[in-house]
Amino acid sequence: MNALLSDAMFDRIRIPLDDWFADAIGWLTLNYRPTFQAMKVPIEALLDGVSGLLLWLPPLVFIVLVTALAWRVAGWRIGVLSAASFLLIGMMGLWSLTMVTLSMVTASVVVCLIIGLPLGVLAARSDRFQAALRPVLDVMQTTPAFVYLVPVVMLFSIGTVAGVIATIIFALPPLIRLTDLGIRQVPDDVIEAAEAFGSSEREVLVKVRLPLALPTIMVRTFSVSLASLKRTAWLTSSFLNSPASSSIGRVMPGRRASSTRIRSWPSTSRWT
């Protein structure tokens, strides 16, 4: 009777979901690890290229380019703040780590665009595909990062690529959703006018739907993607033995406070 009044009643009917998941990941690792290692080659090449470029640029040239871009896009205040932020990072001795982190964010955004835009277009064109894709996006967007970080590390091995892939998993759903939304918001009368002039379905998509949806796609995609990447950028630091992660174990609050500046810069942008 006491067993019925406590959680002991579930002991005999427990569903070993954790064991099933561990067995599935172990089976994939054992049988398809070379496949997953090959899948990470393009991401690793992109990451190495971006990282090499950012580390090759002289810091002064990089600061001038970023300041000019921020000034042009967001105004002179954001431009000055960007310059001051990167100068502060350099003076704290964190320039190289910042460039590596920035290369991870850049690679993540590029891969998200390559995967997310076509899927968003397909979701906008097919209600069935959208309905089938929605539960997958819900799981990807609501699952805590550490849940899929462990299998990603097991399948792709420890390294910056694993951090980038974990970031992509988190940042991809908003991009697909907002691409779908932007295309669906194109007025029907504009599409009907294009079809009346003899435009094919492909021409309507390329010359009408995407150009009219581009402002919505770009503004919302960058705002959500940058916010998502900013919240998940800490995942990548754990693979670099960075000051932010090592200072926790060594109880170094000063180093921890200074190193978090690497990931706080994107919050100054009006896109976030």
Properties at a glance:
globular; 13 helices; MetI-like fold; single chain; 272 residues; mainly alpha; 81% helix
Would you write up a description of this structure?
- The chain is an all-alpha fold.
- It has one domain: MetI-like fold, CATH 1.10.3720.10.
- The protein contains 13 helices and no strands.
- Helix 1 crosses helix 4 and helix 7 packs across helix 9.
- It starts with 16 loop residues before the first helix and ends in an 8-residue tail after the last helix.
CATH superfamily: MetI-like
- Note the run of SSEs as H and E: HHHHHHHHHHHHH
Q: What number is the mean pLDDT?
A: 77
Global structural class? mainly alpha
Number of DSSP strand runs: 0
Q: What low-confidence regions span 5 or more consecutive residues with pLDDT below 50? A: 255-272
- CATH class identity: Mainly Alpha
- The amount of beta strand, in percent, is under 5%
CATH level-3 fold name: MetI-like fold
Shape descriptor: globular
Helix run count: 13
CATH architecture: Orthogonal Bundle
Give the topology, please.
Blueprint: H1 17-56, H2 59-74, H3 76-91, H4 95-125, H5 127-142, H6 145-156, H7 160-184, H8 188-196, H9 201-232, H10 234-237, H11 243-250, H12 253-259, H13 261-264
Summarize the structure.
The protein has 272 residues and is mainly alpha-helical. 81% of the residues lie in helices and 0% in strands. The model is unreliable at 255-272 (pLDDT under 50).
